[in-house]
Amino acid sequence: MKQDDFYKLILKKLLPRCFEIMKGKGTAYSGQEDKLANFKRCAKLANVKVETAWMIYFIKHIDAIASYIRGEYCDNEPIEGRIVDAINYLFLLYGIIKEK
User: Fold this and answer.
1) Rounded CA gap, 40 and 32, in Å?
2) Residue 87: in which H helix or E strand, if any?
């Protein structure tokens, strides 16, 4: 893939999709006020750091991507959705780090 085509794909397709999904799923998971509330609640319930709670959720998406690479992926959600979720989880980790 040519570099210009790659950058257009990321900027015009992938990142807008990431933002759309993050806004849609974000309120369902964390409510209106604190974007990171779900991780904080889970961390408190499990008596772990917020980053550890984040990591457990993130690994779920990495595991799905790894199963796709192995040729074992059998989820109803297309793999592109898992990639978008993984990218969004990295954005969320960035937020967790910056909040500290």
Assistant:
1) 14
2) helix 79-99
Residue type, 74: C
Instruction: Output the six-digit token pair for 92.
Output: 């969320």
CA distance 15 to 6: 12
Six token digits for residue 3: 């570099």
pLDDT in tens, the chain (100 residues): 999 999 999 999 999 999 999 888 766 666 667 889 999 999 999 999 999 999 999 999 999 999 999 999 999 999 999 999 999 999 999 999 999 8
Tally of residues, the chain = 100
How many domains, in total, are found in the chain?
A: 1
- Distance, in Å, from the CA atom of 11 to the CA atom of 16, rounded to the nearest integer, reads 7
Q: Which domain holds residue 37?
A: 3-99
